[in-house]
Recover the amino acids of this structure.
């Protein structure tokens, strides 16, 4: 059974930094794309960043230049380095993976940016 487990969510002050991690596990699981979505209160889930196994990345305009996604293919682990955080980044962040057939989701980790 495929599982995605996030970690690293916390309360941080505006301008601070945080790094999220997500480890994917499961027999014969080789995700094509891994990344992060987020959902703020009262809003729909939105794509934050993704990275393919070949290193192709995507960032939402709202996080471009502040967030960096990285990936360890051997460990099926994806990271999100978040810098210059602002209150608009407050959300539950969900790990995401796609194996070319279907999507997989983690349970989410809370990121709160507040003074």
């Amino acid at each position: 059974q495929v599982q995605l487990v996030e970690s690293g969510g916390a309360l941080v002050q505006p301008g601070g930094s945080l790094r999220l991690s997500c480890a994917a596990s499961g027999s014969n699981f080789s995700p094509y794309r891994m990344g992060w979505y987020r959902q703020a209160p009262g809003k729909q889930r939105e794509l934050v960043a993704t990275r393919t196994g070949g290193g192709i990345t995507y960032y939402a305009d709202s996080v471009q230049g502040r967030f960096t996604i990285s990936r360890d293919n051997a460990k099926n682990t994806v990271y999100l380095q978040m810098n210059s955080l602002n209150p608009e980044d407050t959300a539950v962040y969900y790990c995401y993976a796609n194996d070319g057939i279907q999507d997989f989701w983690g349970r989410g980790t809370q990121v709160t940016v507040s003074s």
The mean pLDDT is 94. The chain is about 0% helix and 50% strand. The two ends are 40 Å apart (CA to CA).
